């Protein structure tokens, strides 16, 4: 018998999730059956969507899902022998039993982690995982940036945003990022090669963007929503493209009581903009294509990755709240 621990979300969050909204449950896993594998979690992800999905009111309590990288410790599935590393959506647990034969829903996804060679396996929940696929397909499929165009990204120093800006640079674009601290701005400009970055908390976004993008914005990768997005969309060029990836500025709000939006129809019509929301699993059958490019760019040094690592299963809640508060530069994750 293996002793396991998992986080259960007990109730719907009100505002910022509280420690008491979660409960750590200890239990014994049954011996594995044919077709099953026993997996020890090594890297567990904390993501904004864990907060957002709680607002959709699916039944509570539920086990806290998220992506994780784990090591197969026992196996009755020849496709996943002992020692294999797998990426799954088992979330905030230290040990779990998985069955790849029933992994036909996003919630039950299990796949082998590609060999990361000299790089950390944690990339499997970062640049070579969901955030990587999100940045890659959101930017390249929806914004379709062309060399020489101006791309703006918000949440620019986070897991997704930092990749979006660098992929846009690889594609020959001019890149402007908005993030929430001067340290993040420095990292974007000095280390990642963004052409310009701004601390949205201290600048007049309208003004600085006019100056940084005097010819207007062609593509906007929206990670945060809210007023900053309306300002950016107001400065777009004819036939500009907006990929709506997330809206973290409102995840802690009651979705029924969000403020009225700035009118966007005028720039949408007059500039003939395309604005499209997306979920990365739309391209699930093509993720390996993204991973192969992303890994190639990481190896060549064209794409830099950074992680904000918190250590310990008991620290998952703290890491989650820290990420929501903007403490992370790059991908926020927990080493178990
Ligand atoms: P990040 O690594 O970017 O971490 C979250 C960041 O959000 C924080 O570091 C903080 O940075 C910023 N933030 C927090 N509150 C606010 C606020 N009120 N206004 C503006 N920024 C805020 O997370 P991810 O890269 O994982 O996710 C980024 C976005 O992408 C999220 O909206 C997420 O939901 C979305 N997403 C969408 C997917 C899809 O398939 N559509 C898949 C994965 C992610 P700062 O200091 O800059 O404020």
UniProtKB/TrEMBL annotation:
Q: Does the keyword Lipid metabolism apply?
A: yes
Please give the catalytic activity noted in the UniProt record: pentan-2-one + NADP(+) = (E)-pent-3-en-2-one + NADPH + H(+); leukotriene B4 + NADP(+) = 12-oxo-leukotriene B4 + NADPH + H(+); dodecanal + NADP(+) = (2E)-dodecenal + NADPH + H(+); 20-hydroxy-leukotriene B4 + NADP(+) = 12-oxo-20-hydroxy-leukotriene B4 + NADPH + H(+)
InterPro entries, sorted: ADH-like_C, ADH_N_2, ER, GroES-like_sf, MDR_fam, NAD(P)-bd_dom_sf, PTGR1
Source organism superkingdom = Eukaryota
Q: Which GO terms describe its cellular component?
A: cytoplasm
Coiled coil start-end: none
Indicate where this protein resides in the cell.
Cytoplasm
Enzymatic class = oxidoreductase
Record-annotated membrane-spanning stretches: none
Give any single GO term for biological process.
prostaglandin metabolic process
| Enzyme nomenclature, EC number | 1.3.1.48, 1.3.1.74
Q: What keywords sit in the KW lines?
A: Acetylation, Cytoplasm, Fatty acid metabolism, Hydroxylation, Lipid metabolism, NADP, Oxidoreductase, Phosphoprotein, Prostaglandin metabolism
Q: GO MF annotations for this entry?
A: 15-oxoprostaglandin 13-reductase [NAD(P)+] activity; 2-alkenal reductase [NAD(P)H] activity
Listed under subunit, the entry gives: Monomer or homodimer.
Q: What is this protein called?
A: Prostaglandin reductase 1
* Organism expressing this protein natively: Pararge aegeria aegeria
